[in-house]
Amino acid sequence: MPTPSEVISLRPSASAAFLRRPLAAAAVCALLLAACSTAAEHEPQVQAPPAVSPEVVVVAEQAIEKGRYADAKLLLERVLLSDPGNLRARLAMAEIQLAFRNLEAAHKAFAALAEIPEVAARAQQGGGIALLLLGRDGEALQALQQAVDQDPALWRAWNALGSLHDRGGDWGQSGDAYDRALALNADSAMLYNNRGFSYLLRRDPEAAIADFDKALQLDPKMDAARENLRLAFAWTGQYERALLGVSRKDIGRAFNNIGFVALLRGDLPVAESYLLRSMEADARFNKVANKNLEYLRSLKSMESTKPEGQG
């Protein structure tokens, strides 16, 4: 079944090494002043990097919001060359590492920023998301909870907490987390898709359908929400409706997913039919569909060997 739809390490400026040279030279010149004076007059002066306008960071942040991470990275590198301590630029660069799935580097960058009060909450949010993607759920939960404790307006942290609680089967906590995220960002198709998938996990397909519909209203091109909507229809037993609009290239996947949902619903004859159709439609799904068929046949075998009177 598909899963629901969810930044550069800083190097010291090269000029720092050159800026130390006059200090060493000064110690020598104190002893050999006459000899050094002429050479010092002709020694090339190291120019500091030109200052960058603060608006560049704003432009980089806007590029990140639009998914233009490479453009944002180039802008932030310019800022950090002239101002390595710029907290806003460092935080944005850590977000780019996260977007590029450089998860260990992102976590390290966020962890350093989490020690600085001005950006601690947002750094905990980013670090928690990195830990979640790394599969370090316990640490992620701690970081994300600290983030929302410090700043309850961090909707991405609430969304990540929803995903964590889904993994643990804590539906009350996950529902509360997604509701808080949507209260802060009601126009996010991604959030509706994620809450909808949470409803699917809870075996509440009607609520899931409503959320997937809302996600597609907000973003008609969101393939994850469209595929999840098909799963939700299958969970209600509307198998043919679940196939509406499926392209030929995706039909094998759709047959397999619908077959798997039917299997989980205990609708074994329908499940077998769709899994076999998946194998016929697309050889890429032969292995997956065949494993599902093996599981189905083991269930059938168990049913046939049950003593009479046992349901």
What would you note in describing this structure?
Helices cover 70% and strands 0% of the residues. Among the domains are: 187-232, no CATH class; 237-303. The model is unreliable at 1-41 (pLDDT under 50). The protein has helices at residues 15-19, 21-29, 33-42, 55-65, 69-82, 87-99, 103-113, 120-133, 137-150, 155-167, 171-184, 189-201, 205-218, 223-235, 239-242, 251-264, 268-281, 286-304. The longest helix has 19 residues, at 286-304. By secondary structure, it is mainly alpha-helical.
Broad shape: elongated
Instruction: List low-confidence stretches.
Output: 1-41
Helix proportion: over 70%
Helix-strand string: HHHHHHHHHHHHHHHHHH
Beginning-to-end CA distance, first to last residue: 28 Å
Strand tally, please? 0
Number of helices: 18
| Relative strand content | under 5%
The chain-level mean pLDDT equals: 85
- Biggest beta-sheet profile: none
* Rg calculated over all Cα atoms: 28 Å
* Secondary-structure content class: mainly alpha
In short:
The chain has helices spanning 15-19, 21-29, 33-42, 55-65, 69-82, 87-99, 103-113, 120-133, 137-150, 155-167, 171-184, 189-201, 205-218, 223-235, 239-242, 251-264, 268-281, 286-304. The protein is mainly alpha-helical and 311 residues long. Mean pLDDT is 85; it is low at 1-41.
